[in-house]
Structure formats: structure tokens, C-alpha cells
Amino acid sequence: MCGLIGYVGNQDCKNILITGMKKLEYRGYDSSGVGYVNNNKIYVIRAAGKLNKLMEKLKFYKNEFGKIGVGHTRWATHGEPNEINCHPILDNSKMIGVVQNGIIENYQDVKKQLINNGFFFNTNTDTEVIPNLIAYNKQRHNLSIIEAINKTLKSLTGNFSVIIITQYNTNTLFAYQNNSPLVIGIGKELSYFCASDPIAFINHTNNIIFLKNRELACISNKTLKIYSQDYKSIKNFKPCYINIDTVQTEKQGFQNFMLKEIYEQSSIINNMINKYKIENYKYYKNIKYTNIKNIQIIACGSSLYSAMIGKCILEKYTNIPTFAFCASEFKIEPPPMLPCVLTIAISQSGETADVLNALKIENERRRNCDILYKVNSIAITNRPRSSISRYVNNIININTGIEISVASTKTFSAQIIVFYLLSLNFIKYKFNNNSKMIDKLIEELSNIPKKIEKILLDEIQNIKKISNFISNINNIFYVGNGINWPIALEGSLKLKEVAYIHSEGCPSGEIKHGHIALLNKDMPVLILCTEKNFEKILNTAEEIKARKSPLIAVSSIKNNILETICNFVIQTPITEEILSPLCNIIVLQLISYYVALNKYIDIDQPRNLAKSVTVE
Q1: Statement to judge: residues 274 and 225 lie in one domain
Q2: I need a labelling partner for 140 at 20 to 30 A (CA). Which of 218, 325, 332, 443 fits?
Q3: Mean pLDDT score of the chain, rounded to an integer?
């Protein structure tokens, strides 16, 4: 979950590294550091805290860095996020520097071996074994630096990527990845870039190479060589051209990226619906709809809640049994294999370790099965060229543009839209093309952007008022039922993520089964109200109010009783029940945003979180 960047070329690397690290902070911001080679010596500057702490230090470094260097933004896995544990990490002789993302699983055994051979360790990180083992292998086996690096990396287990600088070869970066993304950018005038995400160097080049698992790249300002895991030179690697809209990485007048991305949702949904109509139902046409009798969805975090909503949507329109699984649990206790199953994996980044490993397990156990149990899989992602593409048959690109804020907003809504569009295709290709149902759903979906805009126009002051109230509490329940239970869970998660308030989501019918013991004047409840089962929801609201809990309603129904018993009511546009999550989530995202704003929290970079969860 850390961010890596390296540069070698004809320019001073200082500004290139820092600019790239700013783009990579979404991957981790516990600490940061840079390392560079100048006059045949490695220099390292590190700082605990967010990147601005490092930048303050760098103000005192007036000299040029040199033309080769590495940078690192850290999300701590081993060792506290202090300056000692910051990357780059050096070997004992300070001749080898490493920045790493991921985890070295066998580092304790390697560390013990190195200590027995006279090495000492200054940090609590797993990373420190890498430069020291390289130094050991070079000295013990009389190897060249590249041979020592190759031998070292082959002996390490785990999912990780590294960029290495050395005093033995001062004009070369060494880059390696194993199930942890690393891309190389080919710049102009004999310059090369290497990073965890091409966004780090997209202002310099669009020509990139995705390193494959266990490939080692040797990158100098003159040549690029790539070696396979058995140390054979790869001759015919071809760069590909990618196009990233850099405007998406700017706030465009908004105070925070999260608010900008909340406001983008109406246009994103509108674009997705219009594209589907223009392509005349050819969206996702490569999926074999007719053979599918079961559906399983695998996801984590916010994507798990969009999966739960997807289950409701798919079962309503297709009547196909659908199951939503938490990816981290799927790995531990895989469910029984079902025949004729479509596996849908959801990962905003396409790099979520738990999702990728769940897919590996699913692919492996179905590898030698008969035709009924063969793998049929798709991934829903915002990064179609990411690692997840290697594990599925088809990719669905939600194409929302880069989401900078760590808390998911626009990608969450886009994932839900995909399930509506998949349902339309099932209706067309599997269930005899019910044109009336298709036309009705498309019409209803087409009205959603205007309804979102109405919320943003009419309810902001009311939402701010409620946010002021929530800012002063310590605990809250979010309650919904049916398709809005996952929305309650997602709203609850958002409040935890960006406002640091303890929150629980539960089905409205479950309040009386234990949760009610916690209700009192200091335990507010936010309840999602829609037309379906409104009377039952109203009964739940009465039960809550009887325990003196402050009550907040988000409702598409105007009702005098509801308004009487609630402390606050937010009115949402009248919407079909099956589409109501798309409006309700806007309200809950905004509440979380304004509560965090009131508490002076860094909304786009909340503590302990990272956008791309690439470790288990």
C-alpha cells in the first residue's frame, strides 16, 4: 500500500520525485523519504508524517540531488511510522538503498541468518533484510550487483515490489515486482521513470511498460533491460500508450477532492447510461449470459456494500441466485462450488490483495473441473490495466476518472450502476428481450442524475445542520432495510473513515434484537425511509424514539408522523425502491464530509487508511 517512484535521466531528480510522491500519497502517508546518488554516494532524507513534513526538510537542501533517485510514501505494515522506519532503507555499508511496497513474509528467517553472519539492524521493518541480503550475497558469492539482486529477490517470499539504487552501479535503477504493481515510463531524451502507479509520472510520458510478476528491470539513462524470473533477458517487450486525464487530479475550485468527487456522480451516472444507450445494449456483450445459473460477487470495504446492492438488483431483474462474499473471508472459507456460476470481482484499484487472492483460489479450484464448473469471471474496476485483469475473463471499466480522495464516493455509485446495466443485458440476452422492462429501467436510470442534482441544490443547508449535530456525538446507528441496508452500512463506514466517529449499520428490523440495549439520549439513529415497508420503518422509528434516541430520517416519503417524531428529516426525491440507493448514498456521503470538515480532519487523507489496499 506504499507508493514507490524512481527516476533516471538527464534532469535533477528532486522535483520529479516529490511531484510523483504527491500523486502517490493516496497509497500511504504515514511517512516519506527520498534517496539519490550523487558523486558516487547514496544520500537519504526521510521524515515521519505526511509528505509536507519531508518537503519542509527539503527546503534546507539547496544543492541538486543528481540524475538518479527514488522516493517512497509509506503505509506502515512492519514497524511504527517514525523516521527510523522510513524508506529508503540502506544496508549496513550504506551502499545499497531500497524502497519497497508489500510484505516480505520470510523476513524473520532471513534476518536471523544475516545477524548470524555479522549484520546488524536499525529498523523494525521487513524491508531492511533486502539491502543487507543483497550485500551478503554479493560478498559471500562474489557476484555482480545485478546477480546479487536477482539471487536475493528470488529467495524472498511474499507479495512485494522494490526499486533499488546502489553505489556499485550509480546510473542504474533496479526494479522488481511480485504480485505488487510496478510500471516503467519511457520518457524523452533518455529518461526513465518507475512507479507503483503511472499517475506519478503521467505529466512526463504516456508510454509505459507493466512489469510482470518476478520480472527484474535494469534501468539506466541509456538502456532498459528486463529479465524473467529465471534471469533470461526479455527481448520483445513493447510499451503501451495510456491516457490519464490529469485534470482529474486537480480540485477544480472545490475545497477537497471528496466533495468534488461527490458532485461528479450525477455526470458520471449520466455518461454511463448514455454510453449504454448509444452502444445499443452492446455494453458487456462478451459475457456468456445464457449459461449462467448462479452469481457470486467478491469484494472488500465499500465495494462489498456495492456487491450487496448488486445482489439485490440482479436477483430482482434476473431471478438468478446471487451471493455477495467478503473477499478476505472467501480466502479462508471458500463456499461450496456452484455450477454455471458467474464470478464478479470488484476492486476500485484493481490491486486489492484480498480480492486478487480470492480470485486465485477460485481459479485454482476450478482449473480441472468439467465444463459446468469452469471459470466464468468478470472484474468491475476503475483501472482496467491493473493486476485484476490477469485473473478474470472480462473487465468492466467503470471509467469514473481518477478518484483521489481515499474514501470511495463516485466509484461506489458507478459500481452500482454496472449492476443495473448487467441486469439489462441479462434481460436482453437470457430472458427473451423484455423490451418494456428494459425501456422502463433505462428511463428510470436516466432520471437519477437530475434527482442527485436536486439533493445537491435543495438539501445542502439541511445536511450541514445535521452534520453540526453529529459532529458533537461519539456513537451513532445507521439503519435501513432491503436494498438500503447496504447503504446504511456504507454510510456508517464513511462516517468512521473520514470523521472518526464510531458508527454501526444494521437492518431496521434488527434494532429490537440486541441493538436496542444501547439506545438512549446520547445514541442517535439515522434511518433510511422509502415507500416499501414504510409502515414497518415507521414502527421502528417509534421504538427508537421511545428510548429517547435522537432520530434522523432520510426519506423520500413526506409523512406528518415521521416529521413529528424525528429531530431532523432530509427529503430525497421520490424514486423507485430499487434505485433509491443512488440518491440515499449522496446524502450519507455529504453528512460524513461535513462532519469531518467541522472537526478539521484531513478529509482526503484520513488516518491509517490507504486508497489501494495491496497487502493482506
Answers
A1: no
A2: 218
A3: 93
